[in-house]
Design brief:
The protein has 2 domains: 3-244, P-loop containing nucleotide triphosphate hydrolases (Rossmann fold, 3-Layer(aba) Sandwich), CATH 3.40.50; 279-284 and 303-447, abc- transporter (atp binding component) like domain (Coagulation Factor XIII, Chain A, domain 1). It has 10 helices and 20 strands. A 6-stranded mixed sheet has the order 5-6-7-3-8-9, with helices on both faces. Helix 6 (190-205) links the parallel strand 6 (178-182) and strand 7 (209-213). Helix 3 crosses helix 4 (131-145), helix 3 (116-126) packs parallel to helix 5 (160-173) and helix 4 packs across helix 5 (160-173). The termini are far apart. The protein has 471 residues and is an alpha/beta fold.
Length: 471
Amino acid sequence: MSSEDTVIRISDVSKRYELYEKPRDRLKQFVLPRLRQLAGLKPRRYFQEFWALRDVSFEVKRGESVGIIGRNGSGKSTLLQIITGTLSPTSGSVYTRGRIAALLELGSGFNPDFSGRENVYLNGALLGFSSEEIDEKFDSIAAFADIGDHLDQPVKTYSSGMLVRLAFAVQVQAEPDILIIDEALAVGDALFQKRCFQRIDQLVSRGTSLLFVSHDQESVRTLTKRAVLLNRGNVVQWGASSDVVLEYRRLLHEEEAAYFGAVAKGLSAKAQEQSLMSVPPVHPAPDSGRLSEVSSSAEDPVPMPERLSFGDGGIRIVRVETLDGDLCPCSAFYPGDKLKIRIVCQSAMESKNLNVAVRLRNKEGVKVYSWGTLNQDMEIRAHHLSDKVFWAESVGINGELEVIFECDCNLGVNLYEVQAAVSYEATPDYMSQRMLHWMDEAAFFQVLMRKDEYFFGGVVDLKMKAEWNIE
């Protein structure tokens, strides 16, 4: 694409706020530095600087969908407000091209005393439409919002879900050049969210550029092609959404590990043993390496680069492979075949309370299924079965742990990625988890179809049956 296709260009954008300890310090800052400067004295600051954004740069092309992710306070909303023009940057420049429709704060741009109908015309006017143009679009807006008679009631009587329905309906019916969404859809029900995502897909296919902010990593991965990760106002990574989401998970893990580490240091030895957040001590074997030094052996079916993994270490995944029903290596399956996934781990510590898990994603990035040994353990405990519980098993220093997952392959035609994980679970219910090793792209397999023998469409085979009666 040429530079003419660029609809958003963010160049070295920074935003600084001045934080005052006392209200009178604001007045001092307004008056005293000037007086000191006139007197030949060095000016003094009466505030602390807070940089919400620091030297942020990226571009968005026409028809491109871009995600923005990061923890609360990372600068996402500040950046969106600067793009829409409701905030001015302290330094740097912002270029936008075309009409912008933004769903930022819930209900922003609505007059609470006006009815929904009146607010449609008000928002339409703000977007540059005449009354006649809004008249033409009104029925479509009302149908998409689907709030019935509430359309003629004051907006201040609306629920959060009704507010976002109406706001989204107005913005998307305007068919903007740039659509910006900041977590607003999270308050909608599942059916409305489905309709919203379908509408977003239509707009993007017609050339609308999308900026999408969400804490839902799967939505960012599947709805956007590229993404930017912000942390404390800085760009940590900019690139393919799948890579950025992985880096975000790694960042969350590191911050969580640092938090629990600080908590553990503040506990006494006795309290640490009783704490649900405590992690078993690591006793490395003489030749064991750090997690970052994990490398594939000659036996490994796929390489395991460091950039695709993270974790606290102590136990590492060394081999992941897909097998057929006879435990032979296999990378192509047909519906109804037996699919087995073998995960082999090596331990550099003594531990129990472990969980080994897999997650399957198709080539579009959609999470198809996730399951682990702890899921099986929870079922055993819930039904008071006599089966062995993996969570209670122990592994020693230099021990090897092998888990084989088995299922019938009822998936649709596609290429599938296997993600593998081993975690420490302080309680047998996923309520207190510490990730020891997570691995993206641990293995791949294909599902094919013999159309002349058995055929179905879609993501998964529901094994439907048909009955009929003809008279």
